[in-house]
Amino acid sequence: MKAQPGSRAEYFDGWYADMTGSPAKDEIQQRHLGLPPHLLSNSLLGWEGIAEVAAALRLPAGGTLVDLACGRGGYGMEIAARASARLVGIDFSPEAVRQARAGARRLGSGAEFGVGDLAATGLATGSADGVLCVDAIQFAAEPAAAYREIARILKPGGRAVLTCFEPMAWDDERLSSRLRRVDLGAGLSGAGLSMVEVGERPLWRDAERAMWEEAAALDPGDDPALRSFHDEGVRSLATFGLVRRVMASATAP
Ligand SMILES: C[S@@+](CC[C@H](N)C(=O)[O-])C[C@H]1O[C@@H](n2cnc3c(N)ncnc32)[C@H](O)[C@@H]1O
After folding, report:
1. Cβ–Cβ under 8 Å, residues 39 and 30
2. Whose CA is nearest to atom 7 of ligand 1?
């Protein structure tokens, strides 16, 4: 399966395809975030953060965790394994899903991965004990629809945990329009979830800054994954102080 030509998913397909030939990018990311070599990340959640996310999800053993916009599935597989839960990962990039499946086979994990959108997962209503979304809700074409999808697939009492960045000032035009509209509390409450908590995580930022400083300083040569990592490092450092790091959790009624 391939993403539609010219679509946003096709852009991410290319991003993931480039990574298959670039262990250097993964090594830098894992070193700064404190992640083991098998955990492939495409975001900024570190090892201590994983423990906080896992605790907030309160997954029952044998329950189902859905990792939304899962990328290569590293975080979902780690967190589900800690709770002996089943993992279903969804991403709109067929290439990410292909790599996530290959990673699961390598690790002997029974995790399942499928192609779907943040706002249209294709999963059954009330089928998830937990929904995880790591640094990806900002990509939803229509954020309210993505929050509604989270609420729809959760069982009553199920938990949603999201990490992301929120603007310090909603009208700061130095930030992308995508980031300027991130408001996890309003999104989760607006979708009807309860016990919504949004907490700032300033301690996570030291590793993020160090990672982007190394990315921005490196010479990517002709490695396209390192090139995009380098460019993202430069962009992220330029707006580093304009966003706050947040983790949000909520419960389905
Ligand atoms: C920054 S990466 C994070 C991936 C993964 N959560 C992680 O932390 O490693 C953002 C992910 O969102 C996915 N994505 C972007 N827009 C999406 C959408 N509308 N529906 C589903 N996935 C989407 C991308 O393909 C990509 O895998």
Report:
1. yes
2. 42
Going from N- to C-terminal start, the domains of the chain cover 8-251
* pLDDT for position 1: 76
Per-residue confidence (pLDDT) for residue 2, from 0 to 100: 84
Which of these, 46, 103, 54, 44, lies nearest to 79 by C-alpha position? 54
User: Residue 203: pLDDT above 80?
Assistant: yes
| Segment 158-182, tens digit of pLDDT | 999 999 999 999 999 999 999 999 9
Full-prediction pTM beyond 0.90?
A: yes
* Protein residue with least CA distance to atom 10, ligand 1: 136
Superfamily of domain covering 8-251? Vaccinia Virus protein VP39 (3.40.50.150)
Ligand 1 neighbour 42 (Cβ under 6 A): yes
The atom number, within ligand 1, closest to the CA of 116 reads 21
Does the beta carbon of 134 lie inside 6 Å of ligand 1? Answer: yes
